[in-house]
Amino acid sequence: MYAPRVFISMTVTLIVFAVAAYLITGSFYTAVIQTLICAVLIQAGYFAAVLYLVRREKQIREAGATSDAAAATKSSKDGGRRDGLRADAAPNLPASDT
Predict the structure, then answer these.
(1) Separation between Cα atoms, residue 11 and residue 16, nearest integer Å
(2) Does pLDDT of 52 surpass 80?
(3) Looking at the domain assignment, is residue 42 inside a domain?
(4) How many Å apart are CA 22 and CA 15, to the nearest integer?
(5) 3 state SS of 80
(6) Does residue 64 lie in a domain region?
(7) What is the number of structural domains in the chain?
(8) What is the mean pLDDT of residues 1-12?
(9) pLDDT of residue 4
């Protein structure tokens, strides 16, 4: 989640919500309070989403570390070559941006 995009989207959403709340209720004070409540709910949802993404990334990394550890154990048995490439093979690989 790209933070600046989220903040801009949240601001636009709150402005639209504030205008709609004002048009529905006819009270500026009520629209402000409802918009503040909406802002807190949106921020709580954003926080929960970030926590979920961090937790998921941690689980993926832990699963990768477990498989890397298994691969390292296997590779130590077959000469220390983890990916099947020799150490001098990397400079000989073609590089391109396309």
Answers:
(1) 9
(2) yes
(3) yes
(4) 11
(5) coil
(6) yes
(7) 1
(8) 84
(9) 86
CA distance 7 to 57: 23
CA–CA gap between residue 38 and residue 34 (Å, rounded): 6
Residue 19 pLDDT: 96
> Residues 71-89: what's their mean pLDDT?
57
- pLDDT at position 69, please? 62
- 54 CB burial (10 A radius; 0-12, 13-18, 19+): exposed
What are 60's two structure tokens? 């993926």
What is the CB neighbour count within 10 angstroms for residue 36? 12
What is the C-alpha separation between 2 and 82, in angstroms, rounded?
Answer: 35
Quote the tokens at residue 23.
């048009």
Asked whether residue 50 is domain-assigned, the answer is yes
Range of the domain at 49: 36-69
